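re the bet — no i am not wrong, look at it urself. input seq straight from the record:
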Amino acid sequence: MRRETDRWLARAITPHQLSALVEKDLKFKQFLMDPSMAKSKKLAGVKEFCQGAKFTPITSNFVEAMAENGRLRELPKIVLRFEEQCMASRNEVKCVITTAHALTPEQLTNVQDSIKGHAPQGSKLKIETVVDPRLIGGLTASIGEKYFDLSLMSQIKKYEAVLTAPL
C-alpha cells in the first residue's frame, strides 16, 4: 500500500504545489471561495484550471469532487492534513523554529541538536525557520504537538503582568 501511495505522489502534483497554485492567482482564489457562484459555473472553471495545470486524473477528480460538494473553501485545511499524514507515514515530525533574526548555519545546527531530544524516538525532523522581529530575542519552537517559548517578548509580557497586577 505504501509503495502504491509513494508512486502516486511521485506522479501527481503535491498538495503543497496545489495550494501554492491557488494562492498565486488571487483572481482564481476569489473564484474558488465565492459562495454565491453557481456550482455548474464553478465546476466548469475548476475543470478548466485542472486541465491547464496538467493535473493527473486523480488530482483533477479530487478537486472537481470538492467543487461539486461546495468544499473548495476547505482545500487549504485538507492540504495541510494530507501533508501531515504523509509526513507521519515517513516518520517525519514538522518543527517550526521562529527567531527574531535569521540564524547562522552554526546557530541552526546548535538549535537542531537541542531540539532532537524533544522529538519522538527514531523520527526525522523536518525543520522550517521563520523570522519574526516581534520576538525581540530568543526563539520559539513547535515540534509536532509540543511548543516551547523561549522568547524575550514572552518574558517581557510576564513581567508586565506582574507589575500591572493589583497588590
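see?? Residues 91-164 form one domain. told u. also Residues 4-11 have pLDDT under 50 and may be disordered. so pay up
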